[in-house]
Sequence to fold (414 residues):
Amino acid sequence: MIVEIPEEQLLELQRQAELGRLLAGVAHEFSAPAGSILSNRDLCLRLLDRIEKSISDSATARTVELLTVARELARVDQIAAERISHLVRNLKVASRVADPEPQRANVNEIVESAVQLGKTQFRDRITLETALGTLPEVECYPHLLIQAVLNLVVNAGQAIEGTGRITVGTQLEGDMVHIWVSDTGRGIRDEDQPKVLKQGFTTKPVGVGTGLGLMMVRRAVIDDHGGSIAFESQWGHGTTFHIRIPLQQKRKGVE
Amino acid sequence: MPDNRKPVVLLVDDEDMILTSIRTLLMLEADYEVVCFSNPAEAARHLENNQVDITVSDYMMPGVNGIQLLAEAKRLQPEATRVLLTGHADKASAIQAINQVALFQYLEKPWDNAQLLLVIQQGVERAQLFRELREKIMELDAANSTLKGTQARLLKAFL
Fold:
């Protein structure tokens, strides 16, 4: 089926593709400094151990205290540096332009990555929770799945005015994996519900929504993974989106 | 032949901070001679005249990329080990690296010090074993040709 895409949406898609490339570049630029900081932090701890050993006989109480403070700082650095390093890894996977073949992956890790990336947008305004079930490895395109879940999380966050809660869950259903994103936002009006999964539909103000987010989710879930999308929503109470993808991908390569 | 020189680790990255971090790690936890280059072309020139045990190279660098440098390292010193440490990890470059330069390990930045240390130690050991093997084969070849000469002389003397 060929869908004609209006020109302004085409431009928007191009802009998003450029942003994706920019993001991949930024993630790459971060790898070296993050790597260096993480390594040096580890080395500082190793050095502190050595210093402590070499002065163990002559150390005054004050020296021991100073060493403890230095070690404590190095530990805080570790938490800080690991957070940067996780973010860089998640960004790299999410902004990857294309994985030519599906990979066996841990879907719960993919969901966690999307949630971590989503958190950077909402800070304390929204509580993000996960309810992850036990899953087998799933054959999928990890970058597309992260983008799809991230899109749903960002949508959910935009539906919440003020404070609220988003829950992202996973569970195994036969030979499918079920991923759901639930929010306590404003919900979708009954009359808008049939239009939600159509490309270009948005109720968000200009500059917030493009009407393309769900289209990308659709493309990733239905076209690329052979899965399905559904949602239920109550105006004023919130929305839950459901993604289901098969555990195995059909080979679509040429013979 | 016992060899008392320290194993040589060649580090190549256009970011000085990476060189400093890894050099410090090796200084602290191992006993190697560490040679660093932020310019891959200079690293390639170094490989022409100086034996190394392992080359650890970044991928994206100005002028020469990591795979091109490691291909040159393979041509100049085939028995030395080659490792790629890259911030730009994608499947295509990984496959290219493994196939073209017989890569020992493909590591991603940010790296884990304990893991990097282990890879470098194993890589150095591997290079030294290769070199020992080559020396033994050359000794065997020499012994073999001496034997052949003796045999020829014996045949001449008795027939």
